[in-house]
Amino acid sequence: MVKCRHSRVGVSRRAALFLALIVVMSSGLSAGLAAPNLAEDVLLAGPQRTALWPHGVALPTDRGSLLQLANQGYRRAQFFMGLYLDYGIGGEAQPFEAFQWYSRAAGQGSRWAWIKLGDLYFRGRGTARDAKKALQWYLHAGENGEPSGYLAAAMVQIRGTGDSIDWPTVLQRVHKAVQAGVLEGHTALCLLGVRHVVATQLPPEQTRQQCQMSADGGQPFAAILMAQWLAEQHNENNPQLQKQVEQWYERAAAMEVGNLAVLPEAPLVMAEHFPVVWIEALEPLVSANRASVPRAAYRAGVALLKSGQGFVARSRGVRWLQKGAELGDANAQFRLGLAYAQGEGVVVNPERAIYWYTLASEQGEVSAQFNLALLYYQGRLVEQDFTKARFWFEHASEQGDVQARDHLGDIYRHGRGIPVNIAEAMKWYRHAAEQKNVYALTSMGDIYQAGEGVAEDAAEAAKWYRKAALLGHAPAQGNLADLYRQGKGVEKDLNQAAQWYTKAAEQGDMVSQNWLGTLYLDGDGVEKNPQLAQQWYEKSAAQGYAFAQNNLAVMLRDGLAGKADYKRARQLFLLAARQNSGDAQNSLGVLYEKGLGGETDPIEAAAWYRKAIQYGNDSARYNLGMLYYANRQFGSIEEALRLLQDAQSAGVAQAQTALARIYLSKENSHYNPELGERFLREAAEQGGADAQALLGVLLTFKTPLKQDYEQALRWLKKGAEGGSPEAQFHLGYMLHLGVGLAPNAHRAVHWYRKAAEQGFAEAANNLGTLYFQGNGVDRDVFKAVEWYTRGAKLGHVPALHNLGNHYRHGLGVAVDARLARHYFEKAQAAGFMPSKLALGEMLEKGEGGVASLKRAEGLFGEVARSGNMDGKYRLARLYLTHGPEGKQVYAMRLLQQTAKLGHPAAQYGLAALYLKEADLEAPLTDRVKQAYSLLLASRHGGMSEAESLLERLEKHLPEGVRQELQHAFEKTKAKL
């Protein structure tokens, strides 16, 4: 932290009074008016009445002598005692004591003490600020023979006493001062005309006249007001007016020549309030009093640096500081060093910064000592040197600099350039802590919490953290919250933790923002609020905190506060992963492997898994092992086994289950059913829900374990209750179909829904089917579409097909053949035969787009070649309906084969062809008999269309033939 301090210097008595007037006029009365026209017989020693001043005694120049006279009851001595203490003449300023001496002098009728009491009340210096009491003292002075009191009272009214401004009264009191010969009254009227013309309604000519009279009376402030007033009327088309403005500024500067001898501070006070051009005009004048040059140069330099008028003004300010620094002013040397260190008005120059800091430090300028030490400590602008840093920190600390003491504590605590010395560190931290330095208080807490050189003591740590926390220090508030959250050193209190985290988080502490997000996410100490949790994670993540970036990514990935956003989750995981967060690297690998939030990229996934392993993430060993096992091009099965075994040894439950899967699979050379079963049962017994699910499935299907429905159901129930979606799905499946127990579609719906809500696609599809059938739930085609859609979005092929059927036939949605075709296309591309047949039919008929018999033929043929009877039937029908003629014989043979294999539609179609060629009125043929038998089989297979043909044919069949054929069919049906 950069500090800049002003050393106090003494001012002359008249300077003090004149300065007060300057400040009042420039700011509208930021201080009370001192007596503007004190005569020498009032201020200086001379023949006095004994009651006021001892005859023949000159004004003492030291406080001790003056104090003796004041204690003897001389009111003039009492007044000057107050003045010396007020302005720090002859020693340190003591405003409270000054107030007491002014009060004693005022009690004896000192007019100037009345004025000074008004000043102190108005500024709140040496007493509580009270504008109304200030007004009372000023009016008392005015009403009792000191007209400048009226002027001061008017200025107080302008600055405000809590009452509305009574402008007529203000003007009345200023005019009283003017009538009494107070020259500054003209200056006040000038001020009112320039700054408050709307309220006072003073005519412009009167304002000009008052400013002129005041300036003619030697008041430079009036000249400045005149310049400003003219400047406000200036425009580029009036160069003559601009010249007048410059002339008035020059006149104001020239007036100071006479003042410099007794008023060295005046130009610099004015420099802090008025245009740069005025300060520049002082440059040739300051040399009028060489004793005033260092301080004057310093004040002018600071004023220019703070003027806000650009680099040129700041560079001029540096020149003034150079002047004061070269003449030995420590403040100027320090401020010049700061300018060179920060590049303020000059190019950054480390050597010059160190040079001027060092000169100021050698004169005891504490801010320079601290800043110089800080440069050496941080190694900024200069080579790092802890020895020199400690040297200057010690010097600043001896003068009570609290920051230097805190830094000394850091040096001893961390062994910067010296051996670690916790006792010495704690000594300096305690010194700084006594001055309420929050960093030192927090460091004390850190030492006790970590047990650095002392016994670990969380309770003592909490005490120190609390002190800093109550002073508003965010890191301490966060640390105290940590203790409440963990129950260390204090009774565990998540509500208190949340309160302290909130205080720190609201100050921007990113660690506390992250923890506060976690509390809101889990509902610990606060009401559960995922949306608010996400907001705090967002704030922390925006500051680059890797833990928050990872936590926010998890929320977005899992949709914990709304809809999942895989794309942004991937971006945030990447930010945290680049900061070496093993958790984020592993999660990022999973997204790349599954193609969530972007393209699927197993190579990139493997790379992130490897990085996560380097940073100690054991789950990444499991994921990389499974990736190698599933994709042998990335790694061998031996490498996969090694990674899974390492993950298992590290306690990753899924790893043991994965090893069991490998050992139980006959598809690899590591098939070992005994070891696989042992691993699987161990993992299941240890509560691994995935292992329980797998064990239940294997016991159901006796591959390779012995079938045991009772045990299967027991393990599936455990896994389902443990949250495994695979177990929930298979338990629902067994309940749905009645495997090993009585069917219970209602309970099946319950478990299917549990699994589906976790993203288990098969469960979503089956749940859609139950809703469509009204099995276990009320039939609801809209709900069916909803669950099919969820399954389809997860890429489940049967769900894609079912959704296509709903859009094709308008079940729960409006008919949309184009969209149906889209879903069938996606499912058939995955090899799903029913979708190939459905898409072929739509292409054959031109549903949802352009017809394509060639593509339909290809799809039907692909299904037919797999041995599927539906495919053979549809291909045969396509050829028989649309040709070409060369395919008719093949189509007929294919239809006969399919009918013979019991395909109801093929049987019906073949029968229809036979009857189409037959003459039922002619003698009975074998083809007609075959047609009748085919129709009987077709009707039995569910073809309702066969019924009408049977009725028609039976009219032409002799009773004996019909009975014979029916009897033969019954015998065949019995065999089936």
UniProtKB/TrEMBL annotation:
Coiled coil: none annotated. SMART domains: SEL1. It holds the Pfam family Sel1. PANTHER family: ERAD-ASSOCIATED E3 UBIQUITIN-PROTEIN LIGASE COMPONENT HRD3, SEL-1-LIKE PROTEIN. This is TPR repeat SEL1 subfamily-like protein. It comes from Magnetococcus marinus (strain ATCC BAA-1437 / JCM 17883 / MC-1).
